[in-house]
Amino acid sequence: MRRSKIAAGVAAVVALGLTTACSSTPTSTSSGSAAEAANPTAGGTLSLLIGTATEHWDPQRTYVGVDIEFGNRAFARTLTTWSPVTSNTEQATLVADAATDTGQVSDDGKTWTFTLKDGIKWEDGQAVTCEDYAYGISRTFAVDVITGGPNYAIQYLDIPKAKDGSSQYKGPYDGTGQDLYDKAVSCDGNTITFKMANPSGDFNQALTMTAFGAFRKDKDQGDKSNFQIFSNGPYKLDGTWSPNSGGTFVRNDQWDPATDDVRKAYPDKITWDESLSQETVFERLIANQGDDANAITYDPAPVTALANIASGAEGRTDIVASPYTRYLTPNFKSKVMSKDKAREALALATDRAAYVTAVGGDQVAQPVNSLINPALPAFPDTPLLAGDKGDPAQAKAALEASGLTLPVKINVAYRKSDTMDKIFSGLKTGWDAAGFDTNLIGIPADQYYGTLQSPDSASKYDVYWAGWGADFPSASTVIPQLLDSRSQISAGGPGQDYGYFDNAEFNKGIDAAYALTGTEADKAWGALDAEAVTKYYAVIPLIVDNFVFVRGSNVQGAYVNGTFTGYYDIATISVKH
Question: Can you tell me the distance from the alpha carbon of 366 to that of 356, in angstroms, rounded to the nearest whole number?
Fold first, then answer.
């Protein structure tokens, strides 16, 4: 999941006087607030200082980790969710949220049932119903309208596919195939039943995503609902959302804490300010003055803030392993990147060492050649093809073998920030030395993934940067979500298969991996990862990194939930006042 909200920029851990392991997943370090968390304070205002604009609040379109975390904890309850944690190293467990339990599954693994709790209401006082969840999930199938979100419902549910691999159900706006959806998702009072296409032992984990959340039909405005927030959680939006500015969340008086064992909802109010630069966010957090003492950020620290964090934020930092892998994806619709040897050349010329240097050094970023994060059991640890720095000479030989005339012009898109500008300047040096003529195109953060997922981008860019982390602890939330053309590519765009990788044999391998369990499944997913990277050059993994977060001195109970998105979990945060 979870494209990370921040493009790059993590702290140099040594500069902070803290140590992590460089050869494996780092140890989480926190100066923490455990003592204060034992006596949380209700009331007050929690401030969120954000350096990147939000792309979606529509629950079915939300697929950035930060927004999933905040949306779920503040206003979009799901049938199941992940428990809060009491330390940065604690593993969260799957728990019931709007449902009475984590689900009942049939012996063959193909039918799941959940019963909704009584007493859950929308902010206008109407009861949240089974039909609201069924309708919300149905919106995922309208891939030409509800863009940007995960496609797990299309993947899991027993709804026939068309010849092109797309679902025969086209969503609630078109209505085509509605009877097929109603057979796969049905309501009987407060009980919702899901029919799976294949045995699915982890379906109840997928339901933790807001894409499986409720949406009331009479509130649906299609793509105009992008920043509409209609709450069934502890907070509601006060007024309207202002893109690139933010909004204020106040208590939802229709939320009943008796129905909710997850969200403590200590603050009376939460303000979200996304009008800031990352540099300003950290200047204010380090200064810790006025209302900023009541603030957190979801932004990992940029390199430019490191020295000041070390000297000015002692006792208010948290260092954790990022769940994300940063990678490049060549565009198979590009005249250049449609050629195997051109993709191979790009991979061989990629200087991961330059990337590591730009984000703060090898204490906080490690080069990788696998999409699957090292924290997952399926991690294949594929060797780098040409070392950390790449091999321009070897890459040039591959590019010459492609039949293209050198230098070969390529347009490379990335999510613009000061740090990313430096990163891609370093990568360009290696690519150009191999015979490419690299044109770097930085796209504003609030437009980035929307641009990648637009059909128009297929003719504009040759290579894209992206970041990805597992939606739950399984590689089945990585490989299919990025490389299964059948569930991703449609007339509305590539989904998360940004490079339009479409390979029938690879898709057969995905189907085979789904049929396995345990270590055999892990091996199969790892093998597919290695195949995508070293046979098809469908992706070029770059690094895994660590996150450094800073919080205000009045913030209590702030823990990074590594299982649930890898950011501060507001379910337990309170503010001294």
Answer: 7
Nearest Cα to Cα of residue 233 among 46, 69, 3, 39: 69
Q: How do 555-556 and 408-415 pair as beta strands?
A: unpaired
- The Cα–Cα gap between 66 and 45 comes to 19
389 within 8 A of 352, measured Cβ to Cβ:
yes
36, 576 contact by CB (below 8 A): yes
Q: What is the CATH number of domain 13-76+84-91+231-315+548-575?
A: 3.40.190.10
Question: Two tokens at 241?
Answer: 């959302």
| Strand-strand pairing, 555-556 and 574-575 | antiparallel
Q: What does pLDDT average to in each consecutive run of 10 residues of the chain (577 residues)?
A: 48 37 40 61 97 95 95 99 96 97 95 98 99 99 93 95 90 97 99 95 94 99 98 99 98 99 99 96 98 97 86 94 94 98 99 93 88 93 93 98 98 94 97 99 93 96 96 92 92 93 97 87 96 98 93 97 94 97
From residue 479, give the alpha-carbon distance in Å to each of 137, 352, 563. 22, 22, 18
Helix axes 352-359, 418-433, angle to 10 degrees: 160
3-state helix, strand and coil shares in percent for the chain, rounded to the nearest 5: 30, 20, 50
State the burial class of residue 256 (Cβ atoms within 10 Å of its Cβ: 0-12, 13-18, 19+). Answer: middle
**Domain definitions of the chain by residue range:** 13-76+84-91+231-315+548-575
d(CA 77, CA 59): 10
| Cα distances (Å, whole numbers) of residue 507 to 171, 191, 277, 482, 502 | 24, 34, 41, 12, 8
Single out the residue of 27, 203, 45, 20 nearest to residue 114, CA to CA.
203
Cα 357 from Cα 352, distance rounded (Å): 9
Contacts of 522 (CB under 8 A, 6+ apart): 377, 378, 475
CB distance 156 to 197 below 8 Å: yes
Sequence-distant (6+) residues with CB within 8 A of 50 are: 66, 246, 272, 273, 274, 276, 281, 297, 298, 299
Question: 261, 95 in Cβ contact below 8 A?
Answer: yes
Q: Is 470 helix (H, G, I), strand (E, B) or coil?
A: coil
In this structure, are residues 204 and 94 in contact, taking their beta carbons and an 8 Å threshold? yes
Round to whole Å and give the CA distance between 494 and 489. 4
What token pair was written down for 180?
A: 């097929």
Beta bridge partners of 318: 30, 549
Number of other residues whose CB lies within 10 A of the CB of residue 245: 11
Q: What global pTM score does this model have? A: 0.85
Identify which of 538, 373, 561, 386 has the alpha carbon closest to the alpha carbon of residue 467: 373
Place of tokens 């690139």: 244
Handedness of CA 350, 353, 358, 360 (dihedral sign): positive
